[in-house]
Amino acid sequence: MFELGVTLIAYFLFVLSWWGRQRAHERRLRHYKIRVHVNGIRGKSTVTRLIAGVLREAGYITLAKTTGSAAATINPDGEDVPISRKGAANVKEQQDLLAEWEPVGAEAMVVECMALQPKYQEWAEQKVLHSHIGVITNVREDHQDVMGETLPEIAVSMAHMCPSGGTLITAEPNPELQAVLKREAEKRGSQLLVADPARVRDDEVAHFDYLSFKENITIGLAVADRLGIDRETAMRGMLKARGDIGVVRLQNVVLRGKPVIWANLFAVNDRESMMISMDVLEAHCTPQTIKIGILNNRYDRERRAEQFGDVAVKDLRFDRLITFGAYEDLVTKRLLANGFPRERIANLGFSVNPGVEQIIDTIAAMIPDGQPAMLVGFVNIHTPQAEMMMEYFERLRGHTESGSAPSLLWGEVGYERRQRFEMSHA
Is the pTM of this model over 0.70? Predict the structure, then answer.
């Protein structure tokens, strides 16, 4: 009987503590005049930053948070503050964010959805954010293990973060998926707005210092329209917003005396987005440009590795291919089965564990003398080889800007070290 009493008291204290924390959280939420919750398969982090830029330029004290390539809080000055986690990512992090930043007195927030499973997306929206505006950037094939096998199923899964009695904005172009999102929004008493990329002019896209997409920019304009912010202010704010670590910045470099355009698309990991990105990159190539693709594969993404063994040959126009990370034998067999010549494939992942010098030597050897090249990394970010390459090119960027010679003997560096480097040179 004594043990039962202790258990009941402990349970009562737990419930009381939870109730107190929830009330405090709801009190903090009421200080935010504008709450935006951003979801989607591609572009979430970039769109989060663009919307935050719109709100800052319109005069709102704005707090934002991204969860993508590198989790960060964007403070009211538009500066990144990296998020340090002691364990695995947890959706409770969104509550902790508001408590930690309460002293800044923010009145608007833009938060990237960090949940994949529908029930957690719904919990994050209904219990944590209570957003006025929800965003689903697009619907693509990814995370099918938790979000559904078909595109309509994935759309329904993501709509679990749709606000109640608010507005849901998307730039998804597929009418069938728009209909799914409209139905899901109406279930929750919300209105669906479809943002039209045709509103964005080519010259406006050209002003961004990274590879930008009209679909992302038009979402920022749609949010501005919804809040009564004029277009000029919205565009100015988006241009001022710092790009995410995963955005693509083209970099002209010289590797072993050969001119190369480097495009970091490691954050792009679905077929449709990769095809769209390559279409944009084509404008930077000449008919003589040798296009080299780096297939970067993680141990926990076997299905994706196999899928891109098909995409790289059937849908993309690469002249040479390099494999990084895991599943090199599987991917190489897939490439060969699709008719890609073996002599145009270089395995530089875990089967070799090369240093950065060996990787650069191999890339340079793939480029005929006198021809320009474009080097594109894609599929995943987190492998030692990809991290070495990203840090290597960052050092070359610093060399170009400062005129100091870069060290080329970096070895295998960790992702946290790359984060610190990029933050210190931002």
Answer: no
